[in-house]
Design brief:
This protein has 462 residues and is mainly alpha-helical. It folds into 3 domains: 93 residues, Fumarase C, Chain B, domain 1, CATH 1.10.275; 251 residues, Fumarase C, Chain A, domain 2 (Up-down Bundle); 97 residues, Fumarase/aspartase (C-terminal domain) (Ribonucleotide Reductase Protein R1, domain 1). Helices cover 61% and strands 5% of the residues. It has 19 helices and 6 strands. The protein has a two-stranded antiparallel ribbon. A two-stranded parallel ribbon has the order 3-4. A two-stranded antiparallel ribbon has the order 5-6. Helix 8 links the parallel strand 3 and strand 4. Helix 3 packs across helix 8 and helix 11 runs antiparallel to helix 12. The longest helix is centred in the first third of the chain and has 36 residues. The two termini are 57 Å apart. The relative contact order is 0.10. The model has no long low-confidence stretch (mean pLDDT 96). The structure holds arginine (ARG). The site of arginine (ARG) has 10 residues, from helix 6. Arginine binds next to helix 6.
Length: 462
Amino acid sequence: MTEQKTWSQRFEGALHPAIARFNASIGFDIELIEYDLTGSVAHAKMLAHTGIISAEEGDQLVAGLEQIRSEYREGKFNPGIEAEDVHFAVERRLTEIVGDVGKKLHTARSRNDQVGTDTRLYLRDQIDQIRSQVRELQQVLLNLAQGNVETLIPGYTHLQRAQPLSLAHHLLAYFEMLQRDWQRLGEIKERVNISPLGCGALAGTTFPIDRHYSASLLEFGDIYRNSLDGVSDRDFAIEFLCAASLIMVHLSRLSEEMILWASQEFGFVTLKDSCATGSSIMPQKKNPDVPELVRGKTGRVFGHLQGMLVLMKALPLAYNKDLQEDKEALFDSVKTVRCCLEAMTILLREGIEFRPQRLAVAVAEDFSNATDVADYLAAKGVPFREAYNLVGKVVKTCLASEKLLKDLTLSEWQDLHPAFEADIYEAIAPTQVVAARNSYGGTGFEQVRQAVQDAQERIMSE
Ligand code: ARG
């Protein structure tokens, strides 16, 4: 039987060891320690500021808490299962360091508002770091785009060749997805950044605390207006998991394209040795493990979102121990998103090389210029639908004779329609096909050059 000293004198017996292990969160909530210390420092200062404890006691508490921080950073503070959770672990160590005054720290506070405060401080910090990682990946995409405005790549719909694109345009699509992720995290951060400290166990406190004071020390943007809501709200965590899931959606789409592009069938990119792995049996293999792992890890983040929604569903007010389950989901999601962002950034920065020869052949060897033939006729007054039908017929005959559109002679073109002239060849050349799509947001080189510049300005100015 473990000795159980945590609870009040009401308890006589000790907790069953298996139940102690089952109940404890110290194994994972130690992750919150820096935030727990920071939150406790603010709480101690507030207690002194309001005269609930003396200034001297406040100073002693703060010094003790900072000592624990140093001990932790030096690897000397390693609380075990007996501490139950990070909050008790800190309070116990504090009392060892500063003596009985340490027992005053928990005045006018509960672990319920404390853990809510810690989790918000943690997430706020992580959001900042994830946002800068998103920016880094955006910059890498932008650099790649800058050098590839005039590189062509087949564009697909239904994974069938559709129309050729500027490679930069394709890359900038991901820049835009990440831009939304960056913005979304910024918006969510506002709702993460609200202080529950001082909500107490559920109903507030009998002490004359100053919640605004501790909130401002912790740089919270606002405080919870209702104590019940303050201790039991995890909307901010769900919102974060939604945003994290969307980042993973975007990374997994990019990953899937990298995997396809690195295949022998596509052959659009080669993987550099720094970001590829071999097979234990097939000596010729070079595998795209990085994007595959990103694609695979996406599932666990979605799972955590679902798990958190189910955790919160129908949970009665206010705090319930169920809420302890929010942490591993959150921590794992944060770690997963962060390592995936890092890996994708490295992969795109130095782990792949586009193969211009293969790309040039790919865009020339198909019928992805068929729309341009129809557009050519439509520009000469042939109703588009009529032109579309005619080109369909041309493609069919070409396919039967294993020819491409560019292989037709001028008289063959003119037999199909008298409106065709010698300039049809230029109109269907891949570079012209791309250049011609000069509508706003389109793949035309002029548009893409402008888009690259705008993108750079947007990330510099925000
Ligand atoms: N370890 C707990 C958690 O993470 C701290 C709050 C405990 N509160 C309580 N009333 N048992 O949720």
